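ok trying again, last paste got cut off:
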Amino acid sequence: MALLFVDSCDLYAIREEIARRWEPNATTVSHINVSATAGRWGGRAIQLASAGVGRIIRHIPPRQTVILAFAARFTRDGSPVNQAFITLYDPTWTQIVIAIDFVEGRYRCYRGWFDVEIAQSDVDFAAVAKDQYHWFELKVTIDATSGSVELRRNGAMLLTFSGNTKGAPTGDITRVQLRSMNQNSSNRIDVWLDDIVIADDQGGRNDDFPGDLRISTLVPTADTAQKDWTPSSGSDNFSRVAEIPPDDDTSWVASATPGDRDLYTMAPLGMTPLAIKGLQQTVLARKDDAGDRALSLVLKSGTAVAVAPTAVLGSSYAFTEAIHEQDPATGQPWTPAAVDAVQAGMEVAP
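nice, full thing came through this time. structure:
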């Protein structure tokens, strides 16, 4: 599997909900916000405010090569110099920093936490333009001799490097951090984020630069014949779990019986993309009593059923996710017709 994580940024109503999928910096959680309309396509976006350097971290399995792609918009006054924008860590230390110099119109790459500058971009003030979305793609391989860094903006290469990229004791990346920039009160940059993808170079799919992507969030639109769970009210199950963002305990479905399964018809794409990189199934769930509780996400395409590994539930709501890079009915990339016909849901695990 190459895709590790996908975030449309549509599943958050307030800043505290971002912590269900990201780790906000503990001292700057008040400087991470959500907008319902500031996204690239008019939907939701995450704002990393610069008053205290807002930052979010996504933990990933240890990987030597990581691919990060996302849309970002820069706002606010001033032109900070050489401020960290993207940081990749091992479990303890910094591997790679991507910094921006808004005065020179230049991107710089450092090994370690600004320890050694290993690459810089040409001067390009369009690449640091404010109040517009840029599409960034970063591919990093950590190695003391044959490492590499490639950074692209809107499909064009900004900087490249080959050689020693090992800024930390291990050769892994386990955390990906995105940051706002604050040099001082007169030179600081808010960063708005949308359509975030993290991948690796394993699995033979989605293992290189993905190109400009749009992440669409599809919700249930109808029940199917596979309907075992109990709704919080009414007779429709799908309507209890179709909110964007989720409404937690306001509406829900529940079951305590192992093997109980719900499958829902999903909203159509509403477009014909050139290619579909994959589907990420996402469910917000918790247990409501003591004892062990677990669920598995289920996806049905044609007659093929894919059951994800069991996820153990806690007493607080948390997202459970499963990525499907291929259509389980064909073993091939998804087509728009297959996505429109898919059924998605979950079952109570034994």
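cool. The chain is about 5% helix and 45% strand. The domain at 3-199 is CATH 2.60.120.200 (Jelly Rolls).
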